[in-house]
Amino acid sequence: MQLTVIGEETPKEVAAESSCASGSCGSDNDQMSSLPDSIRDKVKNHPCYSEEAHHYFARMHVAVAPACNIQCHYCNRKYDCSNESRPGVVSELLTPEEAVMKTKAVAATIPQMTVLGIAGPGDPLANPQRTFETFRMLSEQAPDIKLCVSTNGLSLPDCVDELAKHNIDHVTITINCVDPEVGEKIYPWIYWNNKRVFGKKAAKILIAQQQKGLEMLIERGILVKVNSVMIPGVNDEHLKEVSRIVKEKGAFLHNVMPLISEPEHGTFYGIMGQRGPEPEELQDLQDACAGDMNMMRHCRQCRADAVGLLGEDRGEEFTLDKIAAMNIDYDAAMKTRAVIHAGILEELEEKEEKRRRLSQASVPATEKNLRPVLMAVATSGGGLINQHFGHATEFLIYEASGTGVRFIGHRKVDQYCIGNDTCGEKESALSGSVRALHGCEAVLCSKIGYEPWSILEEAGIQPNGEHAMEPIEEAVMAVYQEMAKDGRLDATVPVVEKMTSQA
Ligand code: CLF
Ligand code: SF4
User: Fold this and answer.
1) Looking at ligand 2, which residue's alpha carbon is closest to its atom 4?
2) Which 8-state DSSP code applies to residue 155?
3) 393 near 412, Cβ under 8 Å?
């Protein structure tokens, strides 16, 4: 088979070169800046493939794919649910025509939306007619939108040519194992050659199809992201091996996500009491895998009809009846979109240039040895500290150290400011936030009220509203340097213990 070359290098070579040998020598942003131009052009405005881009660019999913050809123990699909935020859940299923209408309406209303993904609620490639009809119409009618697809991989080898034909540059394969013994604990059955196949035999077929599909995509120069669900006690240790193998084959990015297994979702794991990982366990595994792989740490495990920036869901604004009442001039919208995209990309270039200059500035040896500190950040996008503490539904977590600032992940919380004071909801939202921010020593936000301020302080998390509207990474570094100046970083004792012992 002919090897397609992207620019000068294949994705396999790119993946090998852009990985960080030590696993801790810099942020995903550093890795992004070391990519060849041809690959950077593909990822710079994709909110899932670039951590930096996710602060600015939005994605949307259209729910055109109801059927699935396998069963995962963590899945229970719902087709008319507006209040659960997890994969496999949607408010309404769409026909390809409705999906195109919705995509154009969103693109005209949210010009920062750059990517249209099909991610369910079932498996897009188990619904090939609906999926490819949607892609075909969109590539004709809205050529400025990137197309993206996510699959379990069972039908992938049969669909690679069709994906390449529609210029789909971004494919995600969910790969949870490369060993059928692990696989049989995750997948009870698959539907294969018109019949159900169970247990280890099913897992073996699925793994072989996923690996074959991955290799075929790489051969065609299509960027592949691998998603893996971390299931403690089932595949957590094994995922390091998965990461190593997919990287070796040329996957561009690995996204290790936590298992969602609340019993009320009605999944097999939820009902059986299988727990998901703690944030620290997830981070440890992501760090362990990072030695061999570019890691995605900003995934929000979106619904199959999500709309907006990652972490935000504006789907309710685009129901079919609301879209029908809109008057959309897509040609005019494309012009506005082009101007807005160019402005954002220019801002990103400037940020990258600044980061490059900062990373070249030498760090004093004394500062390099300071202990790292986790900080939480409230942001509503744009890469800025621009959200009130009480309005946050999630906090981004950054690690500052003597060698720089790196993004670690996000933690969801209940919004404190809409909690009803009279029934203790506010108090419980606040104690939930304190629990969620465990391990963080500061929280940076645009504003914060007196009550949460004192409770956070008592818990050893220093609130900070002094860097409102400043770029996140610079603000985090500024707070870190203040801590260093105050002598709070030279001991190995975390600030929280120090404060308690002084009290
Ligand atoms: Fe959607 Fe997935 Fe494309 Fe992104 S999501 S199909 S690659 S456009 Fe992104 Fe959502 Fe995580 Fe998926 S945050 S669940 S990784
Ligand atoms: Fe659910 Fe996706 Fe698994 Fe199918 S592949 S069972 S839709 S999680």
Assistant:
1) 68
2) T
3) yes
d(CA 55, CA 91): 26
Under 8 Å between Cβ of 102 and 318 = yes
Tell me how many degrees the CA angle 350-356-362 measures, rounded to the nearest 5. Answer: 140
Q: How many helices (H) and strands (E) does the chain have?
A: 18, 15
What angle do the packed helices 199-219 and 156-165 form, to 10 degrees? 20
Going from the Cα of 122 to the center of ligand 2, the distance in angstroms, rounded, reads 6
Question: What percent of the chain stands above pLDDT 70?
Answer: 84
Whats the size of the chain, residue-wise? Answer: 503
Rounded mean pLDDT of the chain?
86
For ligand 1, say whether the CB of 309 is within 6 Å of any of its atoms: no
Residues 169-205: pLDDT tens digits? 999 999 999 999 999 999 999 999 999 999 999 999 9
Predicted local distance difference test score (pLDDT) of residue 81: 61
What's the pLDDT band for 155 if we cut at 50, 70, 90? very high
Residue pair 216/153 in contact (Cβ under 8 Å)? The answer is: no
The answer to whether the CB of 9 is under 6 A from ligand 2 is no
Q: Which atom of ligand 1 is nearest to the CA of 172?
A: 7
Contact 451, 476 (CB under 8 A): no
Q: Please state, in angstroms and rounded to a whole number, the distance separating the CA atoms of residues 227 and 303.
A: 15
Eight-class DSSP state of 439: T
- Which pLDDT tens digit goes with each residue over 81-132? 665 667 767 788 999 999 999 999 999 999 999 999 999 899 999 999 999 9
Hey, is 445 helix, strand or coil? Answer: coil
Instruction: Write the DSSP assignment of 77-94 as a string of letters.
Output: -BSS-SS--STTB-S---
pLDDT at 190: 97
Distance 203 CA to ligand 2 centre (A): 14
421 has a pLDDT exceeding 60: no
pLDDT band at residue 214 using 50, 70 and 90 as cut-offs: very high
Q: In what order do the strands lie in the sheet with 195-198?
A: 70-71, 189-192, 195-198
Question: H or E element: which one contains 39?
Answer: helix 37-43
- Nearest Cα to 154, choosing from 110, 213, 95? 213
3-state DSSP call for residue 215?
Answer: helix
Taking CA atoms only, the protein residue closest to ligand 2 atom 5 is 152
d(CA 410, CA 396): 4
User: If pLDDT is split at 50, 70 and 90, which confidence band does 253 have?
Assistant: very high
φ and ψ at residue 401, rounded to 5 degrees: -150, 180
Nearest-Å Rg of the Cα atoms of the chain is 23
Residue ID of nearest Cα to ligand 1 atom 2: 150
What is the pTM (predicted TM-score) of this model? 0.83
